[in-house]
Amino acid sequence: MIKKLSTLFLASLAAASQAAVPKQGTATENIVFPADAGQVDVKLRYGAKGDGVTDDSAAIQKAIDEVKGIPETLYFPNGTYLISASVGIFNGKAHGRDRFLSYQGQSESGTIIRLKDACAEFGDPAKPKIAFSVYQGDGTGDVMHSYVRNMTFDVGKGNPGAIGLRFMTNNTGGVYHVTVRSSDPGHAGKIGLDMTQGQNGPCLIKYVTIDGFEHGVESAGSFSLIYEHLTLRNQTGYGFLNKSPTTIRDLHSVNRVPALKNEDLLTLIEGTFTGGDPAATALINTSDGCFVRDLSQAGYGHLLKDASGKDHDGKTIDEWFEGKAEALFAGAHPEAVKSLRLPIKETPQVPWETDLSKWAKADWGKPSEDMSDALQKVIDDAAAAGKTTLYFPRRQGKYEYPKICKPIRVHGSINRIIGMENIVGIDGDPSGQLMPTGFDTPPLPAGKALFTFEDLTSDALVIERFFSLGQRKKHGLVAMFENKSGKTIVIEHLCLDGIIKKPGGTGEWFIEDVSPDRDGTLFIGKGETCWARQFNPESYQRPMIEVDGGQLWNLGMKTEGRAAHLIATGGAKVEFLGGLSYQSWGKQKLDPPMFTIVDSEVSLVYRQFHLVDKFTTIVSESHGGETRTLGRKDLPKEHILPLYRSQGVQAAR
Q1: Can you give the pTM of this predicted structure?
Q2: pLDDT score at 39
Q3: Stretch 186-209: mean pLDDT
Q4: Between the CA of residue 141 and those of 127, 226, 514, what are the distances in Å?
Q5: pLDDT at position 333
Q6: In angstroms, what CA-CA distances link 527 with 490, 501, 502, 547, 624?
Q7: Domains along the sequence of the chain with CATH
């Protein structure tokens, strides 16, 4: 049996871990909205008290039951919401109303959903029970756009069978700035964050802390799960039990027990494991699909046990993976193949505007009316007044959404555009500016972008929280964004129906938790740099990503369709770290190389799960006119590309 750390030692390790993983934006966190933004306040509308005394189970459940099925935001003001029973969506049905919800707290430390102590139904770890469920039910791939943000879930004391939070989403969605904890002195609880719902993902779990429980995180049966800045402490079994395709960056574990056991596909970069028992191993891998980089440990007897059962000792691992690396131009030094290690930048977090007088309302009339002129006036007036946040109000309980038919210029003091989960579509092009040539067949649309960013005064602008943004297919291809400002642009938490951005211009791009539809190519041009996290393109025809002379770092990309995943040309630099190519669409006419590399430098850590119409060629690489190919059947295991590195292989460090 593993001995417990002393309380003092554990506290010091936990404090060190917290200091090592600052949760950006949480120190002064105060997420508020104008009253007319369309959020559903559980206190005002459903009578939840949040006083830490009243049982709010029924009020919260009623809110979920009445609001689910439409992209709405359930808002929890600061307070402790006491529950005594399971709350959320259970026995969910595929393709029904049991989806589309966002749960938004006012702050991670101030909004707490707490299970009462010693609830009989949560007393048996052999029969675990979920305290709060975003979705539990039929396996389905369309529980889309689910979010949990800025909240704490506490399973209280004396509830060893409790599961803190079950999360499920598809295409877009995630958990941000959330703590899941057990207040029990012995850290009792079954699972902190439960990701075991079938067909889960893709999604992004970011700035999340799990304190206590037998397993801090447990996953199974997913498409692709991505974690960044994950802290695990005080677990009694495993910090993380992984049984699904998973990508992790920056994992901090403060535990006596193993930090992570991997039984499926894992890409892990930047892991710090402290407090280990000398008799234990920090990372246990039993899968043939495992890539790790930049790991360190303190206290454990072994850092890594691989799939063959071999122990890897020492305090650090620079880079290691199961299987064989591929490099078509490696020459006489295939053993020197390493990942590209492009520079990594954090997605900028634009400060949340708490002065509601600085919010500008993008009001709209009938759903069929073009709001373009009115929207442009709102932006111009907001810039003149020094306002920072442009919002599209939701109409609660209705499938009514605004439309834009002309190019929009965003400028001045605006630093956040928030869609409140609306669907904002392009409905025609009366001015002829968006699609001057009709349906554009060249790679790039000839018209103006829907949103052009110019003369911004803030260092960064974020556009976020649209259930869908873009044109209907009958109107051809439109570029959604163009950056002429020289400032950083962040695109996150939205689906797109159109070309994502025009190449060129200045400024850096960050793409996080974004799902383009089947024409949504991402173009990165010369001189441009982009960092992407949880990028989910789906296409059966147009290339998903084209990088011509630019630079792209991509963490955890999931795809669907047999279109080219990447075309890198003109000296491009591209790094893929983790993700999953999921191909279940039949009758695919095209069979291009999954990755095409021409006179560029690329490294790939990637997995394939192809049910039908599998790619014949995984990589086509050309340098100086010579082309070499790597076929699917050339891989020792068809579904795993442990590491591919294009020309420019560096000597082993």
Answers
A1: 0.94
A2: 96
A3: 97
A4: 27, 17, 16
A5: 65
A6: 17, 15, 13, 10, 22
A7: 7-277 (2.160.20.10), 323-345+514-653 (no CATH), 352-507 (no CATH)
Q: Which pLDDT score is estimated for 445?
A: 63
CB 449 within 8 A of CB 501: yes
The bridge status of strand 316-321 relative to strand 290-297 is: antiparallel
CB atoms within 10 A of CB 32: 17
Beta carbons of 236 and 213 less than 8 angstroms apart: yes
Distance CA 412, CA 378 (A): 12
Q: What's the mean per-residue pLDDT of the chain? A: 90
Phi then psi dihedrals of residue 114, to 5 deg: -125, 130
Is residue 508 within 8 Å of 491, Cβ to Cβ? no
Confidence of residue 5 (pLDDT cuts 50, 70, 90): very low
Cα–Cα distance measured from residue 425 to residue 475, given in angstroms and rounded to the nearest whole number: 11
* Phi and psi angles of residue 108, each rounded to the nearest 5 degrees, phi first: -65, -40
pLDDT digits (tens, 9 = 90+) for 240-274: 999 999 999 999 999 999 999 999 999 999 999 99
**Cβ contact 103:57 at 8 Å:** no
CA–CA distances in Å: residue 326 to residues 37, 334, 338, 519, 614: 51, 8, 10, 30, 20
- 3-state DSSP percent of the chain in helix, strand and coil, to 5: 10, 45, 45
For the record, the structure tokens of 310 come out as 């071999």
Q: How far is CA 623 from the centre of its chain?
A: 34
Q: pLDDT over 90 for what percent of the chain?
A: 75
Tell me which residue of 172, 178, 173, 85 sits closest to 133, measured CA to CA: 85
54 burial class (0-12, 13-18, 19+ CB within 10 angstroms)? Answer: middle
Predicted local distance difference test score (pLDDT) of residue 652:
34
Give the model confidence (pLDDT) of 274-323 as tens digits. 999 999 999 999 999 999 999 999 999 999 999 999 999 999 999 999 99
CA distance 281 to 276: 8
Q: Tell me how far apart the alpha carbons of residues 127 and 137 are, in angstroms, rounded to a whole number.
A: 17
Apex 72 CA angle, 67 and 74, nearest 5: 75
> Who's near 124: CB < 8 A, 6+ residues apart?
160, 161
pLDDT of 642 higher than 80: yes
* DSSP state string for 58-127: HHHHHHHHHHTTS-EEEEE-SEEEEESS-EE--SB-TTSSS--EEEEES-TTTEEEEEPTT-GGG--TTS
C-alpha to C-alpha distances, 153 to 102, 108, 162, 493, nearest whole angstrom: 15, 9, 11, 22
For residue 615 the two structure tokens come to: 């790619």
